[in-house]
Automatic annotation (TrEMBL), chain A:
<dbReference type="GO" id="GO:0031460">
    <property type="term" value="P:glycine betaine transport"/>
</dbReference>
<protein>
    <recommendedName>
        <fullName>Quaternary amine transport ATP-binding protein</fullName>
        <ecNumber>7.6.2.9</ecNumber>
    </recommendedName>
</protein>
<dbReference type="GO" id="GO:0016887">
    <property type="term" value="F:ATP hydrolysis activity"/>
</dbReference>
<keyword id="KW-0813">Transport</keyword>
<dbReference type="InterPro" id="IPR003593">
    <property type="entry name" value="AAA+_ATPase"/>
</dbReference>
<comment type="similarity">
    <text>Belongs to the ABC transporter superfamily.</text>
</comment>
<keyword id="KW-1003">Cell membrane</keyword>
<keyword id="KW-0547">Nucleotide-binding</keyword>
<dbReference type="InterPro" id="IPR046342">
    <property type="entry name" value="CBS_dom_sf"/>
</dbReference>
UniProtKB/TrEMBL annotation, chain B:
<keyword id="KW-0813">Transport</keyword>
<dbReference type="GO" id="GO:0005886">
    <property type="term" value="C:plasma membrane"/>
</dbReference>
<dbReference type="GO" id="GO:0055085">
    <property type="term" value="P:transmembrane transport"/>
</dbReference>
<feature type="transmembrane region" description="Helical">
    <location>
        <begin position="152"/>
        <end position="177"/>
    </location>
</feature>
<feature type="transmembrane region" description="Helical">
    <location>
        <begin position="25"/>
        <end position="45"/>
    </location>
</feature>
<feature type="transmembrane region" description="Helical">
    <location>
        <begin position="83"/>
        <end position="102"/>
    </location>
</feature>
<dbReference type="InterPro" id="IPR000515">
    <property type="entry name" value="MetI-like"/>
</dbReference>
<feature type="domain" description="ABC transmembrane type-1">
    <location>
        <begin position="19"/>
        <end position="203"/>
    </location>
</feature>
<feature type="transmembrane region" description="Helical">
    <location>
        <begin position="183"/>
        <end position="203"/>
    </location>
</feature>
Amino acid sequence: MIQFDNVNKVYEGDVKAINNVDLTVPDGEMVILIGPSGCGKTTLLRMVNQLETISSGSILLNGEDVTTLDKIEMRRKIGYVIQSNGLFPNMTIEQNMMIVPQLLGWDRAKKRDRFNYLMDLIGLNPDEFKKRFPHELSGGQQQRIGVARALAADPPVMLMDEPFGALDPIIRARLQEEFLQIQREVKKTILFVSHDIDEAVKMGDKIVLLRDGEVMQYDTPAEILNHPKNEFVNEFVGSDRVLKSMSLYTVKDLYKAFTLKPNFESKDIRTINEDTSLRVAISMILNQEADQLVIEDNEGNNHGSLTMDLLEQFLHKEIKGQEG
Amino acid sequence: MNELIEYFVKNYPFLWGYMLDHLEIVGLATITAILIGVPIGIYLTTNKYLAGTILQLASVFMTIPSIALFGVMIPVLSVINQGVGFLPAFLALVLYSQLPIIRNTYTGIQNVDPQLRDAANGLGMTTLQRLWKVEIPNAMPLIMAGVRTATVLNIGIGAIAAFIGAGGLGVVIYQGIVRANTTMVLAGAISVAVVAILADFILKLIQKKLTPKGAN
């Protein structure tokens, strides 16, 4: 658990970089720090592992004030991933990934096992990549290694500073998916800086929206999108926030919310799997692939058909309904 | 041309002896210069203010003509009865090679991607670990380039040290001038050049060996 307790950072000349931040990152959750450039999101992140000093207030890591901990020891217990992957060009992939275990003095066999395990986790062949150098890998592969390096000594907490920011959109989306998969398995407590609201919505259990070092809203993605607290949040999440929020729901959520009759009428109607997000469902309808889609669960059962009308009703129920 | 070849054939034991002297003094001076210059260069990366001053000072030494510096050494070192010979030559060469070594080490370490430094800190390396595992290996090509420059420079300047009785291939050139023997002057000069080229080549191999595969 990471707790920020009235945290401030003031630069010379009374410039407040971080202003009275109070928030808690619960165990096993991924919290996204987001905001416009210069809002202090990276600074806040780097204050956790003491790469930036804290002017006043305290940051507690599992109940202990970080400033009282030994810096070096503490950092070895926190996974750290940066945008430019930060792999050391002079070391092989194996050496890069095993840096923290090396610093902690693990024996050879333990390091080798861990390396093989992590390479499997990120979907790269351990023997093929072991002896290679970072520049011989693609950007996506390098970033996977960067993430795996942070996981190397199995730290309970991870700090990720725009880990996928430098990748092209297709690779970024794939790495996001992969990382969510990994997170489901490893359940780390993660603080994640992003500048991309779509990424935040997709990845975060909760989102912290910052402006000028101040927390504007700290909520679940659905709350931020559906009920922005103020004009700034509203503007930041974008006028298509309703559409964005659709990516938080799946077709399954929709058919659970209504009682639908199975549809066996027409033969050339397209089907849609229950795990598909509603955002994709809307695009399918708007692309005029079909004006209704037959909902199928993973066993192939028919759960009725999805139409634009139904989506509107669902939206009303889920989003507007909560307002009253 | 034939005369020159004949000279080399006839006098190679004599030339060989002077060359070994030459290598000894240049080698010792360069090694000492590395032992002093590299740590200074590394230290300067932590002290920007001092860096400017020291680099300036090292540049000043470079601008003093070598013959003048040798001249200055004589009265100073005469105090301890070492006015001529090995010691003044050695000291002058150490001073001359400081600039390329300090400057290249400093620049090399400074130029290591700040993101790598950040990653090293964030992963929990101590300052020394960061230096050994990240900064020095990645600065190695530049550091070695400085060492090569210093060595070649010293081999050339070392020839002048013959004037203060330090021996070496300069003696051959000097005697050639005194005796108005062009062949001898040429033989000495060519020997110095060959030694410089060979030294540079060998250091290049060492540089390759010392530079980690991924770092350049």
